[in-house]
Amino acid sequence: MLLLLLWLSLAAPLASGSAAAAAAARRPSSLRDVTDGNWEDILTGEWMIKFFAPWCPACQQLQPAWSEFADWGEDMGVNIAKVDVTEQPGLSGRFIITSLPTIYHCKDGVFRKYQGARTKEDFLSFVDEQKWQNIEPVSSWFGPSSFLMNSMSALFKLSMFIRRCHNYMTDQLGIPVWGSYVIFGLATLFSGLALGLILVFIADFVFPSRRFSSSDYYQKKQSMEQARLIQQQEDDHEADGEEDDDEDDEEEEEEEEYGDEDGARRRGSPEPRTQGFSEDAVRKRMVAQREDEEEDT
Question: CA-CA distance, 277 to 281, in Å (whole number)?
Fold first, then answer.
């Protein structure tokens, strides 16, 4: 009988402990997981978010304190969450995670980086005493919902996709590392050419060329060329007419000068009497005059 009572006294605490453990196992965890699909939920309400990686020793040391802090989240009205950067590379780029673990506080879409001690008591006082108000918030340019951070998220996703493809080709398909690099180089080249061609098509569609913007473009162009040729011919004719006028003026001036000289010559000295006769006739006439003079003497 004593042995039975002793056994019952020992079994009762064990049963109560196992029941409490079973109840704790059945209780849902208050620690929430944030992914690329539901990250916009953190833009409303108050959140404390931890970015970690399973291989990080500091993250492993922080895990117990963070889990205990999460148990108080519901009572304090704060959502406690975690982000595995190895599984969510887009969020790693969206928040520019450069060190692990990294903790952010978010209040209605305004983000602040936690820099304090990493114990449960420090987390509780940080939220309860609203110490986050003394921290400068993240600029809107670098906010997770900005265009810049959306681009960073897409870039990180692309880099992780390329890494997974590289690991698959080298580990599963047995392709050498240099062969994987060649494949990615060719893919980059052809994707760049395709993107350039698409941009050219978009530019032609948005800003069409003048030759395709109007059906009578060629007619207009031909008429403009004809008008230009006609104008050029008219300009040439006008230039030729001005040269002819100048030449006529010069000739008139020369004629006037020569006419004045002839008039002056006619007025100044009489023409010799021998003008209009040949030299032989003049000589014969002079010889005859001398003979007449000699006869008279």
Answer: 7
Cβ distance 39 to 91 under 8 Å? yes
Residue 20 Cα to chain centre, angstroms: 61
Residue spans of beta strands (DSSP E) within 187-276: none
Q: What is the DSSP string of 48-106?
A: EEEEE-TT-HHHHHHHHHHHHHHHTHHHHT-EEEEEETTT-HHHHHHTT--SSSEEEEE
Residue carrying structure tokens 């590289």? 166
DSSP 210: H
Strands (E), 97-239: 102-107, 110-113
Q: What is the dihedral of CA 22, 23, 24, 29, to 10 degrees?
A: 120
- pTM, two decimal places: 0.53
Q: Which tops the pLDDT comparison, 72 or 22?
A: 72
Alpha carbon 183 to its chain centroid, in Å, reads 27
Residues noted as catalytic: 56, 59
pLDDT band at residue 253 using 50, 70 and 90 as cut-offs = low
Eight-state DSSP code of residue 270: P
Least confident range from 8-17, 54-63, 208-217, 284-293: namely: 8-17
pLDDT score of 139: 83
Q: Which two tokens stand for residue 192?
A: 């760049």
Phi and psi torsions of 192, nearest 5°: -65, -40
The most distant pair of C-alpha atoms in the chain lies apart, rounded to whole Å, by 216
Long-range Cβ contact pairs of 249-254 (< 8 A, separation 24 or more)? none
Q: Which residue has the higher pLDDT, 25 or 263?
A: 263
| Beta-carbon contacts of residue 65 (< 8 Å; ≥ 6 apart) | 118, 119, 120, 123
Distance between CA 94 and CA 40 in Å, rounded? 12
The three-state secondary structure class of 32 is: strand
User: C-alpha 279: how far from its chain's center?
Assistant: 103
Query: What DSSP character marks residue 161?
Result: H
